[in-house]
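Schema walk-through. Below, the input block comes first and the output block second. Nothing else is stored per chain. Lengths vary across the set, and this one has 432 residues.
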Amino acid sequence: MVKITGIIKNSPAYHSDMRENDVLVSINGHNIADVLDYMFYAAEDFLKITLLRNNEEIAVDVKKGEYDDLGLEFDSFLMDKKQSCSNKCVFCFIDQMPKGMRETLYFKDDDARLSFLQGNYVTLTNLSQQDIDRIINMKLNINVSVHTTNPQLRCTMMNNRFAGEKLKYLKQMTDSGIKLNCQIVLCPELNDGDELRRTLTDLGNMMPNITSIAVVPVGLSKFREGLYPLKSFDKNSASEAIDIIEEFQNKFLEKYGSRTVFPSDEFFLIAERELPDFDYYEDFSQYENGVGMLRSITDEFEKALEIAEFDGKRSVSIATGYSPFEQICKLTSLASDKWENLDCSVYKIRNDFFGETITVTGLITATDLIAQLKGKELGDELLISSSMLRRDSDVFLDDLTVSDVEKTLNVKIKAINNDGYELLDAILGIEF
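--- output ---
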């Protein structure tokens, strides 16, 4: 049961006997507990709805177009509280953050509904058999953090005694036709090497309904006192991980016509290997996990460069993390070589806030930007990645805003998405 907080004007609900503050009980005989129930059961064209109004049960019939929105509003998007994570993973980055940051940054979600609706990853540890049955019944394709298929090791890595037994849900879902994207956070000397081979072998046995697997290296901040002892990847261990992954890519490609498993860009950068060609990443299904992002941006930038026109004069700067620095420099050099009147400086920002072992751009804070760019020649505009900012806002991880940084550095800042076309437009000062 969920309280209705509003009715959208001229919607099917608006033209029926449904009111704000009614309690939605069921649709076509199915109890409604959250947004998934609501979306699934309200999709039909004829609805028999049960409401509670002033503690009295009311029946309402609604006829609408199939899949048309019924028009009800609720207190929250999920119509329920977010489900928080019940694990304490040895590699969890939230546990490696300093104290005193905004409260929302410390919330660990592990919500299958957000996995389906927004692409979040879930560990399955707080799901029941009833939850899995609903996923199968509704045919919800979700994203799963697997990390290892060794039950005992999974319990250790997640600090959850149920983590191993929940692996059975993977087979139940794939046997029922549910498509799963998976991820593995790889930790040296823990779930790499032969353990990685075991995990990829087990996931391979569930294909083709395991549709993609991203393998990403563990990120370790300087705030790990009292936490499980982990080490970062180096050139040799990153190379070994890539070799194992590519061994399985070849097997999967031969058997299923798809490489399926991919190392994130960080592995190639740490191993000091060239990024693979564009075709290597197939449909870029794990792009948001940093798999193929640099290759995609590079190809887009080079294509944009072929057709772009620029006859002005411009000086611009880019702030980036240590990992993509060299690749970004290669791209800006191509642009500078093409146009004499274009001056583009790239600054790599050391992550003093979280520690130097954190080299990705998305975890750069305003504090580090200010400290390392103050007094530098930044040109007409400073370009930063939108990944540094909270989603749909101008707030950095340390709660300073873009405006705060602009005032301190005395330069206009433009946040750009991970897109090669957009990057070149921003360098040239073309509005998009």
